[in-house]
Amino acid sequence: MEMKGLAFTTDILIGLSLAIALIMLIPFKTESSYSEVNFQALTYQANDFVNILSNIKANSFKNSPTISKLLEQGIISEVELNKTLLDLIGSLWYSGNKSIATNITREIFEGLTEKCFALQTQNETIYSSCDDFSDTVAVSYRIESGYEVGKPVSGYVARAWATKFKKNTTKIIPFYPEGSGWTAQRLEVTKSFALPQDITIYNATLYVSIHFGTSKSGAQFEQLKVNNVQKKDDVRWLYLQEESYGSEVTTAAYGVVDVTEEIKTGSNSIYLAIGTPHYHSHIHPGMRLIVTYSLTQESSVGNKTFRERYYFDDVVGRTGAWSMVSFYIPENAKNASAYLHLKAFGVDDTRDLLGRNSSDVIIYFNSNNIFYKDGYCSSSECYPLCTLQGTYYRNCQKVGVMNPELFLNLTNNLTFGTNVISVYLNSYGDIHWGSGEARIYSDPLNDPENSSYVEVYYELEESIFNYGEIDITKEILFGGNASNPKNFTFELKPSQRNVIEAFIHIAQSFSSLVNVSLNNFRIFTSPSLRVVPENVYAFPNKLVLGNNTVRIVDFQPGGSISSTNYILPWSSFEYTYLAKGLVGYGSVFNSSKLAIEDAKERLLKQMGEEGIKAEEIQVDSQSVQGVRWLWGPALFKILVWEKK
Amino acid sequence: MKGIFFSMIVVFLLICLLAFLSIQRSLIFFHSTQVAVESRVEAMVGFYESIIRDSRKSMEIIAGRAVCSAINYVVTTGTPLQSSNETIAELILQGSIEGEAQPLMESSTIIDWKQMIEELGKMQGFETSVEIEDLVVEPEDSFHISISYSILVKLYDNRYVTANLTRKSREKVIFSIENMEDPLYPLNTYGRIVNVIRLSPHWLNYSKEDLTNLKDDLNNSYYHPSLYGASFLDRLEGKFFVQSKYWKEKPIGLESFVNKDKLLSAGLSINTSATNIDYLYFSKSDVAAYLISGMPTNFRLDNETTVYEKTHLEIYNVTAIS
Quick one: chain A helix, strand, coil %, rounded to 5? Predict the structure, then answer.
């Protein structure tokens, strides 16, 4: 019985031992079968690896074989060692240095774990320590902006600017309406002007607009000398209009002559001598010289203060002399002032029937009212009260000859836009033309201080052009037929949006008074009879992109439209606009060279659109390195798994 | 009886064993579920941290392009910015200057980054919302600007487990202005002179006996920290001196030596008797300037105060001869 108890007890003890052993075994077996727990361990490791890559600077691994070699070879700089390991590996991988990125990754993790791991980005494996994956793979990831497959991580941008360039530009040198020669007596006009020395002249065209002769044959068209070269026989008459008033037959003529060979850099002069047997010879509106030339110019900044002299032409009339000079004041000018210096010779000093000093020098300025007179006037027209001799001459008592010199302040009568000053010496329109020689003296090249001129001063609040901008002047002829009124439509392109100056050059045969409008805005009305300036200032702020319309109407003092005073097709619109001579930073390139080439190309294209050729531009450039792309973000993954 | 007793003990022990096994299995199952939830939440936290980390990196990239765009605007138009810190902020956020889109900022604004992150969040199974607020640009020191911003991230996951994470933090990025163009030079030389901001390799290493370093600084117009000379942000505004709005306890200003020969060769007139310190030269400040022994005849240095409570003559360690 005792033996049985012992046997049972022993059985129980064995059974319990087995049960305990089983209990101890079962949990281990059961736990290891739950992959989540294993996965958690792998995840911890993957997270640790990602943290290593994204927190530790490359500097900590500068002694690793690959990084130290890259430093030695100068492929990476010390500065780049401030990047995190992930950033360095990413930069190298995405910039195409894949094997280097692989080696660095291997060297970082070598010996760190016995588990398998891989670094991947955008489905590409940068490095994997094992070939085969197991069933359970833990993944940890980091997002990193700035990377995209096949795209550079950073690059260069560049800008370029023209330091010197050659531009084609147009200069218009007007002849003012002026006279006079009466009944076969000669009118002589000399225009002296200077062109810049460092230019290449491509073309010089002289338009001649005169009132001469008694027939279309051009009688008394005596001289047209350009720098002493006779060109009168080379004039091609474009328009001849003969009018007769009883026995008076006279011709308005408009012609053109190519003077490219004669016009040169530096000093130039054009001499004109004309007359008309039975009437009054003078220059009509529209006579001008147009010079097209290329000019080498350095980039500069526009002025804010302007002082300019408008010289009279030298006019030697033999029945008195007169001239009307036009100039302009911009609409945004401040502190504008102007004065006239008039130097004249051979002016008859006369007395009227009552012994009063007649006005032999009469000046009008922007008005029908006399601005200056040197003697008595019987009326606003100011003709002398003397006995009539013939139709257009009054026999006054000549008491001497004057050489008047005047300084007149014009400031109070200035107007924004076009200003016209008319000087008459022994001339009273169709009432009385003088008898003797009178001269408005002007020799701006050799004797500028003693010449006759109007000096204008004004200030602008802002420069009309800033640095990097170049000014380009162009002229468009009206074309079409001679007519009155005449409308002219032209287009301003977007690149020409910044017009700083514009003029309308009126070409006419006979003229009376004119109204000039730009886009329905009146920009000029003749203040008195025959005041038709060669230059009418067109307010740039009235110009619009796209189509613009100029309308010129010649009208009689009573207001009716003149029936035979035509506006000729050789009238023109001249405008000066600003074009940019620089370009800013463009696209990001892989090298400084490429960025600079792109900047230069953009600049040349931009300036080429304004007629400036590539070989004529001197370019400077500046590049900026290390402009990074905001590619991505890319996803970097660390995968960790058990070895099989 | 004894046999029955022992058998009952065995049965009892077996029942205990089975109960233990059952409880243990339940515990392991519960633990596994917990692990899955934890993994997902950890992934969410990891994604959040990744966003914050990447926001700093992206901000650095975007700031670089914004600063380039701001410089580009100034040097191509010749017009200084009204408020450079606000303009840079506008560029970072919207890619524009006064509403006008800047080409260099195309697809490179913080809005572009935010959209990409939100898209990426979706791909990872998170409804993601990122907001950048209160962006402040200010000088950090002479050669760095700082960009600080608040970032609000909202993550929501209802695919695997229901969890959300909403956090707002204030981040700061320091951006180096080295290798950027100094806008003050083109603004004051009609766009003809370019100078790139580079810290002098000789800073605080000037010798009375050997002027090589000083001459090198002059020839290359290297930059030095300055107490009053305009900081980079001031320079974008065309200002010559540090403005009160940017003033900090530590020096944030910059100064370089104007190379008068370079100005001459660009066709610009120079003031030979004026100090070569750029902000004083360009501002035409009426300060006494001294000829320096051993330096070119058109080089002058003033004795105005600069960093470390020293004057220019002291910090550049030179002897004035007149």
Answer: 20, 45, 35
